[in-house]
Structures are given as C-alpha cells and as structure tokens.
C-alpha cells in the first residue's frame, strides 16, 4: 500500500481502522476503504458486507457507513446510512492517527465513552458511562485524560444536537455518496 508522507493512502485504498484498549489489548478492527480528506480530517468508508471484528464478536455491515478521523486524535465519528437505526456513533479515543508501523492504517485507543444519535426515537446521549467508570479504575486513566474526555463527550453531544458540521447530515452524506461511487463489492477478509 502506497502512503504519502502524512501516512495517508491513496483514495480508494482498502485498509483498516484498528482500535486497542488503554493497556494495549486488541479491540475493534474495521476493514474499510480510505476515501480522502477535507477540512474536518480523514474519511474512511465501509460498504455493505464489510467486516468489523473484536475478540468474541464479528460483525458484517448491513448498511454503508463513513468514519471521520479528525486531527485532534480524540474521537472518531461514524455516520451510518439507512437502514441503520443508529445515525451517529462517536467513539471517544486517545492518540488516534496514522499508524507509525503500518503505513496507511489508522489506529487509536478506545476510551469507552461514546456519543450516539439514533433515528428510532431514543434520541442523542452519551453512552457507556458504566464501562468508562470501570475502566478508569482498572486501567488507571490519568486525571488530565479523564477531565479532557469527559468535557469532550459533553461538547460532542451538544454539537450533535445542534447539527453542527461535521456532525450534520450534509457532510457525511457527501462522503457516503463518494463511497457508493466506488462500487465496492462485499469483501472476504482473512483473519
């Protein structure tokens, strides 16, 4: 895979977005395609039939989605197309960026807290506070990380409620159109 000096691959390149936990343990690995970048950051897509796996769980996408990796490295925004009932899912994280050891691969630390927006009447909320509380103790998150990410979760929830870009439909829909334009078939990824 050819990557430019920032670590980003050429648009249309099949790659992965890899998450780990604070202690280095493996978490989610998403098979995806790099779509490109804009003022908000780097965009990835998963067509229908592509996989996301973690220990004990293997998911095949039933709806296309796009994910944004902003330069802050503190969250990843995923927006799902219909028929998904979850429109927005934001994973708060730490040290999210291009892998220094695997060119063209995105990676980061999953920090438990998520901001969710559904289309089924449940609304918008900060999810997994119980997991956050458990892992804060278990992994010994530094106090400054806890304070920063708790404030970020509240701010992201506000921004999703306000429909601010890039959390608005128009921004993500343009990237979903770009993903659809690639015409990628379901993949068979070996593990």
Provide a concise account of the structure shown.
The protein has 191 residues and is α+β, with helices and mostly antiparallel strands. It has a single domain, classed as FomD barrel-like fold (Beta Barrel), CATH 2.40.380. The chain has helices spanning 129-138, 143-161, 169-182, and strands at 14-20, 26-38, 41-46, 51-54, 57-60, 65-69, 75-80, 86-98, 106-118, 124-127.
Report what the structure shows.
There is one protein chain. This protein has 191 residues and is α+β, with helices and mostly antiparallel strands. It has one domain: FomD barrel-like fold (Beta Barrel), CATH 2.40.380.10. The chain has 3 helices and 10 strands. It is globular.
What would the keywords be for this entry?
FomD barrel-like fold, single chain, alpha+beta, seven-stranded mixed β-barrel, 191 residues
Distance between the termini: 18 Å
- The CATH topology comes to FomD barrel-like fold
Question: How would you characterize the largest beta sheet?
Answer: 7 strands, mixed, barrel
- What is the CATH class? Mainly Beta
Please indicate the percent range of residues in DSSP E strands (runs of 2 or more). 35-45%
User: What do we call the CATH homologous superfamily?
Assistant: FomD-like
Order of helices and strands: EEEEEEEEEEHHH
The number of distinct structural domains comes to: 1
């Amino acid at each position: 895979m050819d990557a430019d000096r920032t670590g980003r691959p050429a648009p249309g390149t099949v790659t992965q977005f890899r998450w780990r936990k604070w202690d280095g343990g493996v978490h989610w690995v998403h098979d995806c395609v790099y779509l490109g970048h804009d003022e908000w950051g780097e965009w990835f897509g998963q067509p229908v039939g592509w996989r996301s796996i973690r220990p004990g769980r293997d998911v095949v996408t039933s709806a296309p989605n796009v994910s944004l990796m902003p330069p802050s490295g503190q969250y990843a925004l995923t927006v799902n197309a219909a028929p998904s009932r979850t429109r927005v899912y934001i994973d708060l994280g730490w040290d999210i960026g291009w892998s220094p050891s695997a060119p063209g691969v995105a990676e980061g630390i999953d920090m438990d807290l998520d901001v969710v927006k559904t289309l089924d009447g449940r609304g918008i909320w900060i999810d997994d506070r119980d997991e956050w509380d458990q892992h804060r103790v278990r992994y010994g998150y530094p106090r400054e990380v806890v304070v920063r990410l708790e404030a970020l979760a509240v701010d992201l929830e506000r921004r999703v409620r306000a429909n601010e870009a890039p959390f608005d439909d128009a921004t993500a829909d343009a990237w979903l159109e770009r993903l659809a334009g690639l015409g990628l078939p379901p993949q068979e990824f070996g593990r």
